[in-house]
Design a protein that fits this description.
The protein has 776 residues and is an alpha/beta fold. 41% of the residues lie in helices and 10% in strands. The N terminus is likely disordered.
Amino acid sequence: MNKLAWMLLLVFCTGCAVFGAQKYDSLYGQQLVENRQHPVAIEQQDYFQQEVKPIIDNRCVVCHGCYDAPCQLKMSSPEGIERGTSKDLVYDGTRLLASEPSRLFIDAHTTAQWREKGFNPVLNERQQNPHANLMASVMYRSLALKQQHPLPEQAILGKEFDFSLDRQQSCPTIEEFDDYAIDNPLAGMPYGLPALNSAEMATLTNWLQLGAPLPEAQAISTELQLEVDKWEAFLNRDELKHRLSARYIYEHWYLANIYFADVERGQFFKLVRSSTPPGQAVKVIATRRPYEDPKVERVYYRLLASHSTVLAKTNIPLALNDGKLARLQQQFIDTDYQVSRLPGYNIEVASNPFKAFAAIPVRSRYQFMLDEAELIIRGFIQGPVCRGQIALNVINDQFWVAFVDPQFIGAEQFEQFLERHEDALDMPAQEQSNALPISSWVKYAAKQSKFLEAKAALANEVFADGRHLTPDLLWQGEGHNDNAALTIFRHFNSATVVKGWVGEAPKTAWILDYSLFERIHYLLVAGFDVYGNVGHQLITRLYMDFLRMEGEDNFLSLLPLEERAQLRAHWYRRSPKSLVEFLKDSDIRFTQPSGISYSSDDMQQELYNKLAAKLEPVLSKRYDYRQAPEVLQRLNKLDSKAVNLLPQVSYILVGDKESEYQAYSLVHHNAHYNISSLLREEAQRAYDEDKAMLVPGFIGDYPEALWVLSEEQLPAFVQGLEQVRNEQQYRALKSRFAVRRSDPDFWHYSDLLHRVSQRYRGIEYGLLDYNRLENR
């Protein structure tokens, strides 16, 4: 399209928008945020909580709950509903300049402020009367459009439905909605799913006619307030040691859903930075990253009650109690060290935890991270990114994680080593959110290579003269902490981390030491900005390549020398020549022999067995595939041609009305020749090596397929999957046993799925996300 055509189209669209606004102004009055500012009676609050909210949660929030929600419409809280929609994309891998953040509860605090940031209402903000409250509401018009044009009566929906994550979004305002409905009659809500039933539609219609009254957040209980006061007192003492420790704790816990299990498990809190001290209303300090300059004289660390619906994909629960408080006191306060001055917030220091927190002993920092290792890793899996794109195409689809014992890390020799090389531990976040990818990458690649050379030299020196690495290297969770062994799964564009070594032996494994664990957190969590430019995203992804390989090399160091090279070469088949040369560089490798004796030809499997035996007392059995019925265990041996046809995450519910349903997850592991290519992942896929994993319970938060079976149907279902070799056969099997998104009873099974999930997940429960449901 030439420049003139673009200008004519822009003028036309602008004219339509102006005409639409004039039409609605004449019918329902001028749009003003103030029109909705009226008190909500107690009866209306109860009506919303008891009647309206369950429908919004279970029919709307399952697609509209996170940054990746269509049009940024987050319906998981009254504030999100009031905020409305935006045409701006959060995920944009091509933007040259960082965009302005639009984080709910952080970057604006009133509806008027959100309107200034370009968000448009989904509720009526014109004259408040029953007719206007419906006809001038995008939410009502979207629901009514589905009622007028229900899903076509066909199992697989046609091309008029676009379910791709990166689909073009229209996000019509009320002024644009008439034309939008004419052009997209099947785009009513819930999109690509069955309409609400008559009772649900009547309830939401009635609520909207009343003006969509939204309740204010209720005060927490007296018992909870006492717990909050106790913790805020600990985090905000005046002594420098307390202030530095609180800053470190905050930068690692700010994503957690904190709860007090001894008082009230259902209420979550967020640890935030506030410009106001305990006893005053919280005023959140809004910065892109948790360590950036707060621009206030004193930062206070506060616990802010959360009133949003809990989502599985962002629920990172953390229990606080007196035992945890005593543990922090011992780790950070009672430990003998001095803090003479607090670090500043200049980016060179603040983005590098080895500089900012150098005064705190390494062992204290590392043990703190190990205590909640799953939570820390969940940060880059379930953090504000939601999709986790940068963190994900740089990891394998299944791998096991263990940790170096703190006794190896806390030695004075290692602490001095980190101090000497703190500049080499600078990370790409130092470039902030607008980075030049090539020059930045060259700089940080050089720093990382320098650090790896120094680390290898130290390790080769320490383990010379008859001293060797053995399974004693591993942290064993002090005999009780099941954070000592984790499994990470990638599901293409989402991921999961769970406790235990889950599934059969994976292709790779990581062993994390303190410096590596800390760098992963500050690269992918504390230092990552989802609103950053393409350069920021690119160098973050490229730097993570180094960290992954460092974790893999720590594992390989326990194998014989010749086996390390062979296994590394297998993991990085078909890699670019530059990477092959890097992998052969002996200057960055641990070259001392292993202290483990091997007796089999499969040394990697033998090593897994030895390490698992060492970790046995703390290995979680929650997802042990051997606990599934034998007939379902056969799915772990599916032929790769059948696995190729599976979506990333499928849930299987087995039961009937007479008994409780049992839940299983069928996960598709995508195999790769290597995962070092940023833009050519498809070319690195090793389809013949794909595997499936069937485990009890729920892995993942984005179901793509749902199978509901009776026990009698299991043999036929398993046999059917074993025989699948093409798309037609897969679709035929779904017609027999699956609940498709087009199923008229979809919402009945959705409610069943959530009830079962709540029983299995407990405090980890949250609403699932349906944005990845397949249409097959």
